[in-house]
Specification:
single chain; 9-stranded mixed beta sheet; binds the ligand O=c1ccn([C@@H]2O[C@H](COP(=O)(O)OP(=O)(O)O[C@H]3OC[C@H](O)[C@H](O)[C@H]3O)[C@@H](O)[C@H]2O)c(=O)[nH]1; binds manganese (II) ion
């Protein structure tokens, strides 16, 4: 066993080090059910849509709430880099947080139960995932060797068993799976009932479709790369916010030597958004992903990019250079990526000049 004292993680692990970021355009009543697990944590609510609408936050939670007026006031002209009328607005919450860890969840996700019927403490599992190393250089066939009751299997080189620091923990969803509109349309009644008791490291050099529904990450290591793009009203694309962030953050993690895990914990995703509306929002993404994925697969970041922010600025140049031929939108996105980093650095100046550098 790799000797990590995971039992020390109590019911509200690292409560001073975690902010919960929630994008919402509807209601926060779902927080009633989460109270046993989230009541000790500080919430950062990003209210999308009409800022004159009052969003009620259930009693007893410690929170800060930002609407569009707040985003415009705080970021000034750079506010244009934050999506409007798209869940991607959540990344504003990542930027204003001062905590080491972020957990972000959609407002239609509820507490799931494991096969024994026990309610799942998503924060505890995400923190375990983030507090234990990843193994991106060599696949462990018995999955996460740092979980209780498992280990590295025979043939796993000891020189690789230290693993690397984990930057992202990607959780999954029971009930409504995160399908794209075409799949939703042909399989409207499909529900995910399969609980897979596994956490896996996504190998180095391999991308994955990151979903923002149940996601945690180390803000100090990878925060600047977790920009959820420029989507929603006024943009030709929506619902690819988390995909863009996931591809960018993974190439940055690979470059800086950090790991990404996927699997446990599960949430119960309750609402199926309208597939016809989704098709309209994401149809360009269905085409463009055939170019975006190879773009991220083939790019190489330079040695000089030794922090997430520097990597992201380099990615912005590459986006402008390579993807604008796909559509002029990517030039606007590349500029928004620069505005995001400038805003991030203005709100989060490196502490005594130190920024987290590559391992
Ligand atoms: O204009 C909007 C639309 C939604 N939100 C908030 O974003 C969260 C996700 O919204 P929703 O549950 O309606 O969409 P899904 O299709 O289930 O979500 C997936 O696809 C879109 C995103 O990438 C999301 O992360 C995926 O899980 C929810 O909290 C809405 O209130 C918004 O802020 N603005
Ligand atoms: Mn949803």
């Amino acid at each position: 066993m790799a000797g990590y004292n995971l039992e020390a993680i109590e019911a509200a692990p690292l409560k001073e080090d975690v902010d919960i970021v929630i994008p919402t355009i509807r209601s926060l009543d779902f927080l009633e059910q989460w109270r046993p697990f989230l009541k000790h944590y500080h919430l950062i609510i990003v209210q999308d849509g009409d800022p004159s609408i009052n969003i009620r936050v259930p009693e007893g939670y410690d929170y800060e709430l930002y609407n569009r007026n707040d985003i415009n006031r705080i970021l000034g002209p750079r506010a244009n880099c934050i999506s409007y009328k798209d869940g991607g607005c959540r990344c504003f919450g990542f930027m204003v947080s001062k905590k080491k860890y972020i957990y972000t969840i959609d407002d239609d996700c509820f507490v799931a139960k494991d096969p024994s019927g026990k309610e799942i403490n998503v924060i505890a599992q995400h923190i375990k995932n983030l507090e234990t190393p990843s193994t991106p250089h060599y696949f462990n066939t018995l999955y996460d060797p740092f979980r209780d009751g498992t280990d590295f299997v025979r043939g796993y080189p000891f020189s690789l068993r230290e693993g690397v620091t984990t930057a992202i923990s990607h959780g999954l969803w029971l009930n409504i799976p995160d399908y794209d509109a075409p799949t939703q349309l042909v399989k409207p009644r499909e529900r995910n009932i399969r609980y897979v008791d596994a956490v896996m490291t996504i190998p180095k050099g391999v991308l994955y479709p990151m979903c923002g529904m149940n996601l945690a990450f180390n803000r100090e290591l990878i925060g600047p790369a977790m920009y959820f793009g420029l989507m929603g009203e006024g943009q030709p694309i929506s619902r690819y916010d988390d995909m863009w962030a996931g591809w960018a953050a993974k190439v940055v993690c690979d470059h800086l030597g950090f790991g990404v895990k996927t699997g446990l914990p599960y949430v119960w995703h309750s609402k199926a958004s309208n597939p016809f509306v989704n098709l309209k929002k994401e149809h360009k993404g269905l085409h463009w992903q055939e170019d975006m994925v190879p773009f991220f697969q083939n790019l190489r970041l330079s040695k000089e990019s030794d922090t997430a922010a520097k990597c992201y600025m380099e990615l912005s140049n590459m986006t402008k250079e390579k993807l604008t031929e796909v559509d002029p939108y990517f030039e606007k996105l590349a500029d928004a990526m620069v505005a995001w980093i400038e805003a991030w650095e203005e709100l989060n100046p490196p502490v005594d000049g130190k920024d987290v550098k590559a391992k």
